[in-house]
Write a structure and sequence with these properties.
single chain; alpha/beta; FAD/NAD(P)-binding domain; six-stranded mixed β-sheet; six-stranded antiparallel β-sheet; 25 strands; 23% strand; globular; redox-active center; oxidoreductase; Glutathione reductase; FAD/NAD-binding_dom
Length: 492
């Protein structure tokens, strides 16, 4: 299985086993891979929310509401952004919602609280949900957006039914997000998903997490107090079962759960959580009846401007299954508002410089191309030089901790342009966000080398790498080894 980097070797640390992770390859990515379609993660209540934003002339006795209509279901960052921007552009906008609740990616903060009290954690989480709900309502209200509570269904290209009341719209925007996907296997009724995981009345005694992506790693850190990616997580009691496919869950007389995989059965879990990806939340919205085309996974198909196969209906965010990240949904919502209301046709920019992070412990940050990426579609880049650094940060050396940091730069030999930047270690998300500006701007390795570092920091390593760890060549002149073989030889 391809990986972006390999966790560095560490000194052993004693810890009792608590969580076990099963990266289910059929539905999830390996913890160290960076797929094109990232799964954006937010903690949500099990209570669902659905909303629409509308504006148009009154027709057939329907109530006019606006020029845009946005639907929300569980998530809706892109819809909220589009609604606010549309209202600020002079459009009359309304949002229909059902339990409008948001909580953007708190696992990093939660996992960084060792020995946290579960009841206190849940109380704080609920308080944060209410606080953010108020903030979003105030943002929309201050922008002049009308809020309509209820469940909506699209009846035709310009009409929405909200609990029996009809609203007409010149444009309809669907921003319903996604929902957890659980494979249909025997015993699946005993598992929990990410929506239910943080509504548990007590902390799991021992949990199996099926999945190897963002959500699985982040929750492993929460349930295990703190965790480390790969080998580091193993040192803190998190055991990885690589490339095992779950076949069944069995509940014993004592209510404990066993997970049967293709390699055997593991017993004694109090909970089993599936983090096996998400599917677009497009059921029961009336999309098929009005002619909105969807793919086999239920994702809405859109053009470069986020318009669906029905000219008056648009879609942004995870429901389109493009790049499933909250900031990308915000970008799409902003671009949509410009296209429709500011007479400024704007395409969302899905260039290779979209940064992302996994908030595990330590976190992972990345932006741009990976070493293992298929470069057949990037022939203009040609040969690649890979620069890496693997070290113990000063904080670890002074405290005696075995923590390490791993960094990587992907550089085009022909242009000297930095095509990708990757980091695993403390503060990697913050550091990656800063360097993402440089990657987006097309800075070269020479620009990195000419930049003065801040000492002592981990980030300065990115501007002090001088010698390639390995060279990847597209032709027979390839120097050294490539791929996993090259990594093994380099000791990373």
């Amino acid at each position: 299985m391809a990986t972006s980097f390999t966790a560095p070797k560490l000194l052993p640390r004693l810890s009792s086993p608590f969580a076990e992770i099963f990266p289910f390859s059929s539905h999830t990515q390996h913890p160290f891979s960076f797929p094109r379609h990232h799964h954006r993660f937010q903690l949500q209540q099990q209570r669902r929310r659905l909303g629409f934003v509308v504006r148009a002339e009154s027709e057939n006795g329907s109530e006019p509401c606006g020029t845009t209509m946005t639907s929300h279901y569980r998530r809706g960052s892109g819809g909220v952004r589009a609604s606010r921007f549309a209202a600020n552009s002079g459009a009359s906008v309304a949002v229909c919602f059902h339990f409008l609740l948001f909580l953007p990616r708190p696992p990093a903060a939660l996992a960084e609280q060792p020995n946290h009290d579960w009841s206190t954690l849940m109380a704080n989480k609920n308080a944060e949900l209410q606080r953010l709900t108020g903030i979003y309502k105030n943002i929309l209200g201050n922008a002049g957006v009308t809020l309509i509570e209820g469940r909506g269904k699209i009846l035709d290209p310009h009409t929405v039914d909200v609990d029996g009341k009809l609203y007409t719209a010149r444009h309809i925007l669907i921003s319903v997000g996604g929902r957890p996907f659980i494979p249909d296997i025997p015993g699946s009724e005993y598992v929990i998903d990410s929506d239910a995981a943080l509504d548990l009345p007590s902390k799991p005694q021992k949990i199996a997490i099926v999945g190897g992506g963002y959500i699985a790693l982040e929750f492993a850190g929460i349930f295990n107090d703190q965790g480390f990616v790969g080998e580091q997580m193993s040192l803190r009691g998190i055991k990885f079962h690589i490339e095992e496919s779950p076949q069944a869950i069995v509940k014993s007389a004592d209510s404990s759960l066993s997970l049967k995989t293709k390699k055997g059965t593991i017993e004694g879990f109090s909970h089993i959580m599936f983090a096996t990806g998400r599917r677009p939340n497009t059921k029961n919205l009336g999309l098929e009846s009005v002619g909105v085309k969807m793919n086999r996974n239920g994702a809405i198909e859109v053009d470069e401007y986020s318009r669906t196969t029905v000219p008056s209906i648009w879609a942004v965010g995870d429901v389109t299954d493009r790049i499933n990240l909250t900031p990308v949904a915000l970008m799409e919502g902003g671009a949509l508002a410009k296209t429709i209301f500011q007479n400024e046709p704007t395409k969302p920019d899905y260039s290779s410089a979209v940064p992302s992070a996994v908030f595990s412990q330590p976190p992972i940050g990345q932006v741009g191309l990976t070493e293992e990426q298929d470069f057949t579609g990037y022939k203009e880049y040609g040969n690649i030089d890979v620069y890496t650094a693997n070290f113990r940060p000063l904080k670890a050396t002074l405290s005696g901790l075995p923590d390490r940091v791993f960094m990587k730069l992907i550089v085009c030999v022909k242009t000297n342009k930095v095509l990708g930047l990757h980091m695993c270690g403390e503060d990697s998300a913050e550091i990656t966000q800063g360097f993402a500006v440089a990657i987006k701007a097309g800075l070269t390795k020479a620009d990195f080398d000419a930049t003065v570092g801040i000492h002592p920091t981990s980030a300065e390593e990115f501007v002090t790498m001088r010698t390639p760890t390995r060279k990847i060549r597209q032709g027979p002149e390839s120097e050294g080894k490539t791929g996993l073989e090259a990594k093994a030889a380099a000791g990373v």
